[in-house]
Design goal:
The chain is built from six helices and 14 strands. The chain is an alpha/beta fold. The chain has a single domain, classed as Rossmann fold (3-Layer(aba) Sandwich). Strand 1, helix 1 and strand 2 form a beta-alpha-beta unit. Helix 1 packs across helix 6. The longest helix is centred in the first third of the chain and has 15 residues. The radius of gyration is 16 Å and the shape is globular. 45% of the residues are buried.
Length: 212
């Protein structure tokens, strides 16, 4: 099996690739992890990961800058049903809209919009940066073996205000913040599994085993 990490000029690619490779090794699997900007390599992959850091619009622009990538992602993920994991802004790009520095159209794969964090406690800083507990809202294969209250690592100033039916886990930052979304063969995490130690490796391992 091949796992393709999409390189569109945004994302903690090295750390994501390292975490995926470690999860492959620890599970005793023989999967290949590649980082690629080539739509044809993404087409041939069995699983697809879209990382992302920075501003929503910049990330969409980077994705738009890869000729043929949008078409291949829709073909393989939406039409073909291949397992897909979006990380941080990579998750946010699945939304209908991003409201960061204007209104920017997303991929439209999941209902909702990306809006500024607005914690009710003024003492809490934005960006939200650090370890926060996960509250499991509904079971999902990617969360198997991850206990409610487990900690994951977040770094973000905007969050995905998703349709409630899509939300699998939240965290609290003086108000609910979407932590994990999923539907069909699509999943996304606001936190960084590649920086979330045992919890992150467990989620990545679950993704490698996931049969949506």
């Amino acid at each position: 099996m091949t796992v393709a990490i999409v390189d569109y000029g945004s994302g903690n690619l090295r750390s994501v690739a390292k975490a995926l490779t470690r999860a492959v090794t620890e599970s005793g699997r023989a999967d290949q992890v590649i980082v690629t900007a080539d739509p044809e390599e993404v087409r041939r992959a069995d699983r697809i990961v879209l990382p992302g850091v920075g501003a929503f619009a910049d990330c969409m622009q980077g994705l738009d800058g890869l000729p043929g990538m949008h078409q291949v992602l829709r073909e393989q993920v939406i039409e073909g049903g291949k397992p897909f994991l979006g990380i941080c802004v990579g998750m946010q790009l699945m939304a209908d809209w991003g409201r960061e520095h204007g209104d920017h159209k997303g991929l439209g794969w999941m209902r909702g919009e990306v809006v500024p964090l607005a914690p009710s406690d003024p003492a809490l800083k934005v960006p939200h940066m650090g370890w926060n507990q996960l509250s499991i809202k509904r079971p999902h294969p990617l969360l198997a073996g991850i206990a409610p209250g487990s900690h994951a690592y977040f770094v973000h100033s905007y969050h995905f205000k998703a349709d409630p039916d899509l939300v699998c886990a939240e965290t609290d930052y003086a108000g609910p913040v979407t932590a994990v979304v999923a539907r069909d063969n699509l999943a996304g995490t606001q936190f960084h599994p590649e920086k979330s130690q045992a919890v992150g490796l467990k989620l990545i391992g679950n993704f490698l085993e996931w049969r949506p």
